[in-house]
Amino acid sequence: MPQIFESLPGMEVPVGDIARGFTRLWADTDAQEMKAMQCNLVLHFGLNTTSEDATEQFRIASRFAQRYPSRVVVLCPLREETAKLELRAKIYGECFLGKSKGDTRCIEFVALSYPPAARAYLQDQVSVCLSADLPMYYWAHRFTSSQRLAAYHYLLTRAQRVLFDSALVPADAFTYPWPKLAAVRDLAYTRTLPLRQNIGQFLSRYDPALIAGGLRKITLRHRAEFAAEGNGILAWLRKGLARSGAGGERGIDFEVTSADCPGSFKLEFIYAGPPQIFRWEVDLARDLAIFEGDLGTGRSMLTVGAHLLAPEMALGEAMFF
Question: What is the pTM of this model?
Fold first, then answer.
């Protein structure tokens, strides 16, 4: 995977010269007064990451850091075994204007390339690269094996949040016994926040007893590329309905499938008898959601905008909220 490290922006420096490299980088600027860092973000590329994908995730991290000024450490593992224990480093700095004329901020990136044999030395090097006394968040992107990722115990246990995208990682990512399971967050679930808010706002007009009474089955259809988001929405519904006592002793059947979904998502609540209905259809290409409901108080229809959170916004939501 050497092409990933080489495709990222920045100036290569000796690993032991990272701090002095930043000093030289900002020497003729006022950046020292503008680097009010809020956190550390470690972006760890898995072996399935391509050069193009790595560049895009780097841009996402940059947009995130503009909103939440951060020291970003990017880890680029080499696929090939090598006898050398050499680590390579790049540094990158960027300044940008905030919401006002005097709001200028600067952020810093450190990229580290390392062979598998040097993994034992990575902890010390990462700890040196992080801004001291600030919380650290760990974003594992496209890792190929949960067990292999678990070998990075230092990052998994120190991080305030461990982030991954369930659309891009192994199926056992949810069931693997992570050392800090409560810290794990799924970016696929997080980016559905606007959709979950829309559903919640529509249903909030009804008494919970009307929603739960007689509910027998929930079906969620989705386009194939939205499987992870669909699973997240259904898990959210399952938890919320369980709190309301829906289904009683019989319980509720849940079904999620990619069949017969011309739009992006189609959700339906199926009740024991009429006139109760609830349907929700979303077409993300048109930024459109249509609600239809009759839960015993009359038929209601509503059309609203619909979108997923932007990647940098999903990062912030998963990290801090």
Answer: 0.94
